[in-house]
Amino acid sequence: MTTPSTTSLAVARVARERRGAGLARAAGDRLGVVGCIAASVLLVIALAAAFAPVVAPYDPDYPDLLASLSGPSPAHLLGADALGRDILSRLIWGARITLAGPGLVILIATVVGTLLALLAAWRGGRIDTAISWLLDVLFAVPGIVFGLIAVAIWGPSLITVVCGLAIAYVPYVARVVRGAALRERNMPYVSAAWLQGQSATGITFTQILPNVQPIVVAQAVSSLGFAVIDLAAVSFLGLGVQPPTADLGLMVKSGFDSVLRGQPTEAIAAGTLIVLIVWCVTVIGDRLTSSARSMR
Amino acid sequence: MTPNETRATGPATAGRAEPIVVARGLRKIFPGRAGDEPVIAVDDVSFELFPNECLAIVGESGSGKTTVARMLVGLETVTAGELAVRGESRAAGVKRLADRRRWAKEVQYVFQDPYSSLNGRQRIGDIVATSVALHAGDTATRRAVQRRALEILDSVGLDERFAAKHPHQLSGGQRQRVAIARALAADPAVIVLDEAVAALDVSIQAQILNLLADIRAAREVSYLFISHDLAVVNQISDRMIVMEQGRVVDGGRTAELLAEPVHPYTRSLRAAVPRPGWRPVRRERLAS
Amino acid sequence: MTDPLLRLDNVRAALRLRGGEQELLRGVSFTIGAGEALGLVGESGSGKSLTTRAITRMLDPAFRVTGDIAFEGASVPRMNAQALRRYRQRDVGMIFQDPRAHVNPVHRVGDFLTEALVRDRGVDRRDAERRAVELLDEVGVRTPEQRLRQYPHELSGGLLQRVMIASVLLAEPKLILADEPTTALDVTAQSDVMAILDEQRRARGLSLLFITHDLELAAACCDRLAVMYAGEIVEQGAHVYEAPRHPYTIELLGARPSIEHRVERLPVLRYDRAAHELLKAEAS
């Protein structure tokens, strides 16, 4: 019986019309100016990382011992590390793992977390209670601890840490998605599908999932920033990516020793790149989250 | 509903057919929230719905009219009493998917709010086609389903251009047409219309009421029309029952009941409707 | 002739969009005299709610507003912040469709009613409560002393709307803006609330701008009606309900089902934007 205010409807309609017009404009409306800058920076880093073999000036593992611990020079733009490896090339190669590792963590966590959340929201009752309990337990344990436990069991390697962290990130995705799915589940359009005789799986995947998808994406991107830091920390501790593979966390660590020997470039460059990546991801995640909320 | 028992049970097609829906002594009690008393939403409600008639359930908010409708389709469980569709009891609720699908072919539901009752991420054509596919059986081809969906959309006054649109591109009235099309896709014997025109503008309301009349002229279908609006009820329904605080207090042929209301509650409802020469009247002091 | 209480003169409001503007109020003019009730009637999207927001200068900043709104001769668009606050607090009282959205759910009814008096007018707390009790009694709330200690969620919609009326009357405004005050209520509660509003307004000589989609309700409670379509007033006066002249008003009245008799098919409005523009072009 209550009719929503026409004015707010008009404003919402205008916003929606704007959203509909072209991918670039849609992205602009969702991300805002700062978000677009963050997305562009991240895109540049990702492209450089993806095309590392082409972009990087040197083989990241080639030791030019003569250049060892040299500062920035025309030959080595950011200088070379203790073993004489080109720092810029190692940054570009390192960004590969620094993006791919957390990306894989979040991909696994999002798929598993979303499925658990949808199952909990649809079935309710005991299944919901059990899943919520499991999520709470996972929540109570810091993500990095899962990485360390995985390392303790299977030994240090990137894959081990990724699997461990993926479990740790499941509740971050699942909690938010469960809340959103519960809201959608009580909407009349879901009741309508149920009354039509659509199966539970059908309702979950054709009705509820498309409507919580913006929240899933926003939450995944937001969590990505934390995963980058966690994974870099594990590498820094020497438990993740193993030398000589180039990785930003590892570079901060090996750069540490160089700092004591008077050459801070490696640690600073790797540290800055991590911060930049995390900043970009966090900004994008923030914008996506608020636009997903405003779509309600 | 003793005083009007005889008036209430006489259907439009008196004595000629078996009722499709029978409710006897229907009760619904909601458990009270933390420490509160349980709420008796529906209390000893009985009625019958016959083929090809429109029965209105009239009442104010909190009268339990919507709860009755939701019990009929299984959106609420039945606490006590009998509720049967074509002789098959629905009081125990629905468990299996096959039952749910079979029941959907008998009773369909149109919600009040045409904004939240359509999935914003589905195209109009797909919303109707999903319903067609669910009830067409496995033999129907994709193309046949699509063609049928377009036919149904056309029958509610939406041409094929609408099939590719999303709900947010439609007006409230057009959305309610889609909701009606989705209900028709199951080819049901009964459509429950839960305040289905209440949220619409007067000009749109008239169109939807005409559409509902056209549908009844074209095919055999019964409406259970839930409404608080006596003028709308007068326009569309053959019979009506009046609910107050969970109980049926009055019932009979709509035209007779509204022309000369006898029951005090029906009279007060009738008196509160604005019409030419009407003045608002203040009731006694309000305690709740 | 003296100034009317409120005068709207060719008020336009345009929503700024990328690549242009969309005009949603297209030259609205009307007056409300002291003690007069005007019913502003229209369907959704006609601009009736925008008009009330323009009157209190509460339109979204995305709107560009032109034309003049004068309250007792003072131009509302040109008021400074202090004058505007005074105008909103003392001169105009607002009643909304959904009272629950306009009360703080964690404040007791008593605090809600007396807060403004105590804070802005320096009325003694006990005095303010005494006045609140009197007013609640006048708008037909039983045991008003108890109500003051209750929270909004403990009250029904009809009762809460009476509390809203009391809160508006407490501020002793000159004009009441009532935006669909009964749309969310049952018919019996609607009849009630309108009767109270009407009776209190007459007793105090207040002016009323009653915004509604219900022509019959507006006709019963107002001295004059103004019918809005697409951001314009198509017809206004005391005759509108009994003897409508504009085709839109005539069709709108005809489309509403009647409680007295049933028709085969309801007449459907043929009046649309195209007919509207055509009619305007012919008139000018």
From TrEMBL, chain A:
Pfam families: BPD_transp_1, OppC_N. Keywords: Cell inner membrane, Cell membrane, Membrane, Transmembrane, Transmembrane helix, Transport. It is a multi-pass membrane protein. Its main location: membrane. InterPro entries: BP-dependent_transpt_permease, MetI-like, MetI-like_sf, OppC_N. One of its GO terms (cellular component) is plasma membrane. The keyword Acyltransferase does not apply. Residues 95-285 form the ABC transmembrane type-1 domain. It is found in: Cell inner membrane; Cell membrane. The keyword Transmembrane applies. One of its GO terms (biological process) is transmembrane transport. The chain crosses the membrane at residues 31-56, 99-121, 133-153, 159-177, 215-241, 267-288. CDD domains: TM_PBP2. It comes from the Bacteria. Belongs to the binding-protein-dependent transport system permease family. This is ABC transmembrane type-1 domain-containing protein. It comes from Agromyces mediolanus (Corynebacterium mediolanum).
From TrEMBL, chain B:
It holds the Pfam family ABC_tran. Keywords: ATP-binding, Nucleotide-binding, Transport. InterPro entries: AAA+_ATPase, ABC_transp_ATP-bind, ABC_transporter-like_ATP-bd, ABC_transporter-like_CS, P-loop_NTPase. It comes from the Bacteria. GO terms for biological process: transmembrane transport. Coiled coil: none annotated. Residues 21-270 form the ABC transporter domain. SUPFAM superfamilies: P-loop containing nucleoside triphosphate hydrolases. One of its GO terms (molecular function) is ATP binding. Belongs to the ABC transporter superfamily. PANTHER family: D,D-DIPEPTIDE TRANSPORT ATP-BINDING PROTEIN DDPF-RELATED, TRANSPORT ATP-BINDING PROTEIN. This is ABC transporter domain-containing protein. It comes from Agromyces mediolanus. The lineage of its organism: Bacteria, Bacillati, Actinomycetota, Actinomycetes, Micrococcales.
TrEMBL record, chain C:
Its main location: membrane. Gene3D superfamilies: P-loop containing nucleotide triphosphate hydrolases. SMART domains: AAA (SM00382). GO terms for molecular function: ATP binding; ATP hydrolysis activity. CDD domains: ABC_NikE_OppD_transporters. Belongs to the ABC transporter superfamily. This is ABC transporter ATP-binding protein.
